[in-house]
Amino acid sequence: MLEWYVRVKLKLENNYNSYLEYIPKTGNIVDLGCGYGYFTFLLAFLSENRKITGVDYDADKIALASHCQCKNSNTQFVCCDVMVYDFEPADAFILNDVLHYLPEKDQEKLLRTCIKNLNAGGSIIIRDADSELSERHRGTRFTEFFSTKTGFNKTVDKHLYFTPGHLIENIASEYALKTQRIDNSKLTSNMLYIIKKPMLS
After folding, report:
1. Which of 8, 106, 174, 178 has the most CB atoms less than 10 A away?
2. What CATH number should be reported for the domain whose range is 93-201?
3. What pLDDT, on a 0 to 100 scale, did the predictor assign at position 142?
4. 11 CA to centre of own chain
């Protein structure tokens, strides 16, 4: 089942090509909410100069990812709630369909923590639904409802907290960082947000 899920997911996401140009090919990368680690491994396959950490609170998913045959010394997996994870400076933080599992106050706290631990020249890559796109948001709600009700993804308190896009942009602007919004979806409200920290002058 998981093999076919990954095949379908990669096809639907066009092998995550829209993400890859924003993720450094060297340095420390942290994949928050990595699930089974398929995107974590993809990043490792594409550059041996990345040191990648996948973090997820689902112990079963982390156990499977940690025992994958293709795992090497540059890839590690940590079973931990992202809200209590011991952050260290990184060149990229990835939050792929993560924020809507957290209440808004925790979303804000997590974003601020990522920004504060982001190295100069680094990026925060966020993919999440923009709840302000009301018509397209119905498609997103349906897919997330299906994945959580079937037990494929677990919620902490059986609720989903979809993020208004301006929340991400407002928090980034507090730190004088700009947010690039990329809209590649026609059927859902999913958006790709790129927060970039400039290099030190």
Report:
1. 106
2. 3.40.50.150
3. 46
4. 18
